[in-house]
Amino acid sequence: MPWYAIQHKPAQGDRALANLQNQGASCFYPKIEVERIRGNKRQKRLEPLFPGYLFINIEQTDPLWAKLRSTRGVGRVVSFAGKPAPIDDAVIDHIRDSLDKVADAGGIQPGQPVEVDNGPFQGIQAVFEAYDGEERAIVLMNFMHTQQRVSVPVAGVRKRE
């Protein structure tokens, strides 16, 4: 049975998912845990991996097709040349496997050894201390015989093997 992408109405992904599942459809709405800063506090929350879209596993002959557009929360079926665009099972399986790997990895944890990949501290080994906003990290480096706290771009920090 092929998969199809459904575009849901703005901020109604969970509603579309619930209504499709209530009609007996097999759906996949991938979400990842994201950290955001609100009011100077770091908060974790689940956000859609593909904002605005979810996936449905349905046959072309299924009577549910006639009900899709009138399902609450559903905007449209992603189509090309007027025909719904099927998505290969391997693509959906790859997305599921990738979500599991991301959840298992959990990002860089405090106290974990890291290496700075770019900037003036490139190649220096450090210890990750904390995130500093959306795009920066605080790392501890041994510099001039003392441990220094330095703020570096998150993109330039990688786990040390």
Q: Can I get a quick summary?
A:
InterPro entries: NGN-like_dom, NGN_dom_sf, NusG-like, Transcription_antiterm_RfaH, Translation_prot_SH3-like_sf. The chain is built from 3 helices and 14 strands. By secondary structure, the protein is α+β, with helices and mostly antiparallel strands.
Structure write-up:
It is a single chain. The chain is of the alpha+beta class and 161 residues long. It has 2 domains: 3-105, Alpha-Beta Plaits, CATH 3.30.70.940; 113-159, SH3 type barrels (Roll), CATH 2.30.30.30. The protein contains 3 helices and 14 strands. A hairpin with a 2-residue loop joins strand 12 (136-143) and strand 13. The longest helix has 17 residues, at 89-105. It is elongated. The chain starts with a strand and ends with a strand. The mean pLDDT is 86.
Key attributes of the depicted protein:
161 residues; alpha+beta; Alpha-Beta Plaits; SH3 type barrels; 5-stranded antiparallel beta sheet; 3 helices; 14 strands; elongated
The main sheet comes to: 5 strands, antiparallel
User: Which series of helices and strands comes N to C?
Assistant: EHEEEEHEEEEHEEEEE
Q: What is the CATH class designation of the largest domain?
A: Alpha Beta
The whole-number mean of residue pLDDT values reads: 86
CATH homologous superfamily title of the largest domain: NusG, N-terminal domain
Contiguous helical run count:
3
Gyration radius, rounded: 22 Å
Unreliably modeled segments: none
Distance between the termini: 42 Å
Please provide the count of β strands.
Answer: 14
Shape descriptor: elongated
Protein name: Transcriptional antiterminator RfaH
InterPro entries: NGN-like_dom, NGN_dom_sf, NusG-like, Transcription_antiterm_RfaH, Translation_prot_SH3-like_sf
Pfam families: NusG
Domain NusG-like N-terminal: 1-99
